[in-house]
Design a protein that fits this description.
By secondary structure, the protein is α/β, with parallel strands linked by helices. It has two domains: 166 residues, Murein tetrapeptidase LD-carboxypeptidase, N-terminal domain (Rossmann fold, 3-Layer(aba) Sandwich), CATH 3.40.50; 144 residues, 3-Layer(bba) Sandwich (Glucose Oxidase, domain 1), CATH 3.50.30. 24% of the residues lie in helices and 20% in strands. Strands 7-15-14-9-10-11-12-8 form an eight-stranded mixed sheet. Helix 9 links the parallel strand 11 and strand 12. Helix 7 runs parallel beside helix 9. The radius of gyration is 19 Å and the shape is globular. The N and C termini lie far apart (41 Å).
């Protein structure tokens, strides 16, 4: 017998219900062995033939995964309509039998549900949220409400293929708690100090493309006095330059208390002789910032990869190359 089940929610429930305003929590409840967790996709479709393996990888952590309908939906590059993906997100957080919500994969489309979801209700649920990449959109909504959520690799893209010990330990710690005392690279690999200094603040951010896409919208990431983490995949140095410049011109790079650059995977220039390097881009756009800046955190679209408690208070010590969790 499978240690999990797949549920179908074919009928779109009424999502015009009135939710209570505000939120009452900071750190969500950690999971326990045997807990039911929702698997949803707010972004792209899960590749055919991989759902059961992804669910088994969740069961291997001792959890009881429940795959919502969007794990099997495909509408072009989206896992169903916006309403269907919003429905699964709302129902997963609203179901008392579900202890946590894990996004099965990223891709594209999470920010398309912003107008359909009351994130005050989700933030007040006390349930942890897991994922990264396109799921940054949901993390931003949580961070803007002062609630910690967890950047982790995902069952439908990394877990089912097998995780290395470093990555697995990072995921396990944020699944079951407590928060680690430090965010450290694997095998003692050092962070690169770009700008010295020490800063303390909430760790916010995620995927650069998603952070940039919220600028000038009601959903813009609040970075004021916070530590900004950024990573991306498949963007040329020129595209990274453009997005970081937009963050500068929008005031985000000057408002934050410190910056952590993670992995920029598959971001090499097609013609290196006619391009700046990624390192040059990062250096150019942070050279005059009077805040601590580090790069080379092994976190993002890479393996091994760190898992991050987004929204947690951290101390960025760029002199020593250390990231200490302060709560």
């Amino acid at each position: 017998m499978r240690p999990y089940k797949i549920i179908s929610t074919d009928l779109l429930h009424n999502h015009t219900k009135i939710f209570k305003e505000g939120f009452a929590i900071k750190l969500p409840n950690f999971l326990k062995q045997g807990d039911k967790v929702a698997l949803i996709s707010v972004s792209s479709p899960q590749p055919q033939g991989t759902l059961e393996a992804a669910m088994q990888s969740v069961a291997d952590f001792g959890l009881n995964p429940v795959a919502y309908a969007t794990c099997g939906y495909a509408r072009g590059y989206l896992a169903g309509t916006d309403a269907e993906r919003a429905r699964d997100l709302i129902e997963a957080f609203d179901d008392d039998d579900i202890a946590g919500v894990i996004c099965i994969r990223g891709g594209y489309g999470a920010h398309r549900v912003f107008d359909l979801v009351n994130f005050d209700r989700i933030a007040a649920s006390g349930k942890p949220l897991y994922g990264y990449s396109d799921v940054t959109a949901l993390h931003i909504a949580m961070q803007n409400r002062g609630v910690i959520s967890f950047q982790t690799p995902m069952p439908g893209t990394e877990w089912y293929k097998g995780l290395d010990d470093y990555t697995k330990q990072g995921v396990r710690q944020l699944l079951f708690g407590p928060l680690p005392s430090e965010i450290a690279n694997p095998d003692g690999a050092k962070l690169n100090t770009m700008r010295p200094g020490i800063a303390r603040g909430e760790l916010v951010g995620g995927n650069l493309s998603l952070v940039t896409s919220t600028i000038g919208t009601p959903y813009q990431l609040d970075v004021d006095g916070k530590i900004l983490f950024l990573e991306d995949v498949g963007e040329s140095p020129r595209h990274l330059d453009r997005m970081l410049l937009q963050l500068r011109h929008s005031g985000l790079l000057t408002a934050c208390a410190g910056i952590i650059f993670g992995a920029f995977t598959d971001c090499a220039a097609e013609n290196p002789d006619k391009s700046l390097t990624i390192e040059q881009v990062l250096d150019d756009l942070t050279a005059d910032l009077n805040i601590p800046v580090v790069s080379d955190l092994q976190c993002g679209h890479c393996m091994p990869t760190a898992s991050l408690p987004l929204g947690a208070q951290i101390i960025l010590d760029a002199r020593a190359g250390k990231l200490v969790i302060a709560q």
